[in-house]
Amino acid sequence: MKPVKVALIGAGLRGINYLEYAIHQPHELQVVAVAEPVAERRRAFQVRHGIPEDMCFESADALLASPKLADAVLICTQDRQHYEPTMQALAAGYHVLLEKPMSPDPGECIRMAEQAERANRVLSICHVLRYTPFFSTIKELLDRGAIGRLMSIQHNENVGYWHQAHSFVRGNWRRKDESSPMILAKSCHDLDILAWLADSECVRVSSFGSLTHFTAAEAPAGAPLRCLDGCPVADGCLYYAPRQYLTDNTDWPTSAISDDPSYEARYRALQDGPYGRCVYHCDNDVVDHQVVNMEFANAVTVAFTMSAFTRDVSRTLKLMGTKGEIRGAMEKNEIEIVHFGSGKVETISFGGVDGHVGHGGGDMRLVKDFLRLVRADGKGDSLTSAQRSVQSHLIAFASEQSRVDGQVVSLEQFARQQ
Ligand SMILES: NC(=O)c1ccc[n+]([C@@H]2O[C@H](COP(=O)([O-])OP(=O)(O)OC[C@H]3O[C@@H](n4cnc5c(N)ncnc54)[C@H](O)[C@@H]3O)[C@@H](O)[C@H]2O)c1
Fold first, then answer.
1. In this structure, which CATH number among 3.20.20.210, 1.10.3210.10, 3.30.360.10, 3.20.20.80 belongs to the domain 130-214+285-416?
2. Which of 13, 14, 186, 384 is the pocket-test mutation for ligand 1 (most atoms within 8 Å of CB)?
């Protein structure tokens, strides 16, 4: 088997994570080019994958202006930088693996899916949860009627208080105008999984939520703009930045604050960079808690809650059917099936994989499946095709519209307006 040749656009945290696959399975995947404007990241990635100098580019535009140099590209830039490179790459004949969210603009999501169809290329979206043993087992159980006919789903996305502060208060996804609304940036995974499990068209949504805690109005008296500026409440504050970022552990999320992991570089990042700011004095505007109610064409109803205010970073859900219940906790990587008739309770545990690391094993399985599709030149079904992802992205956009306007939104009407 010849390895699939890929180029990476955006050698940030996600891109380098996926392409570790090539280090472990070099007979399946070879990284032949990279586009990354930050010189140290480009260089580190070049060295890791042994990429020749003339295959290292400073931007997506420069890479895509070259004659076709790989079978596929991975597009792992930030949310608002997905559309242009995806359209160009598909037109140039590349298969594309694109990070979620596809785009913060529903029209762009639709156009990318159409372009992939026209160009007859694979466009897969990184909805990694569909590839986890945890969710794929729940899907199999539903498909074989383990709890009769599915009626309701209750699903919680437990963001984790410190994770909210890191990514959605201080970090890259804190502002709608710079990335996307929380329901898209964080919860498009959940809406995608819920639509997959409900196995039907979403008909209507309603949503409520707001940014309530991480605001100046909630700041403790005397809290300065930056934690290092002599904060008088440092000892009792859950979000005191040095306690999070200046420990011996330099893994994520600390790795996100500085390319240089030394103590001095991290200290400087807290003095000058976004991650040293007081969480009550940032320029964030995305919500810290939100609920979405969904009605599907097959009468399944879903209640979804996203909340920052949880200890665990995890997903917990209960699926209610006519003959039983399935309960799952992703951080425990465990599923419980309750059978009404016999009263029996079965437990399925997925040992070995932490429910949180690498999205419960989903990251690497997603890459493997993308390689399968590229090898078949696009023939075969993708669990996370752009077509499918457009549907779940539209649920996220419609939910945000409902939250902002205070109205129930019909998906059919919403899709027609795009
Ligand atoms: N699938 C998931 O579960 C998941 C999880 C987290 C983030 N994401 C998404 O992944 C994407 C990337 O997130 P990240 O945390 O890796 O971000 P990041 O900021 O670490 O990486 C993005 C990289 O793109 C580079 N870049 C900027 N402009 C470029 C250009 N013109 N050409 C090439 N590269 C360019 C940046 O320098 C940076 O290194 C985002 O859209 C994010 O929402 C997905």
1. 3.30.360.10
2. 14
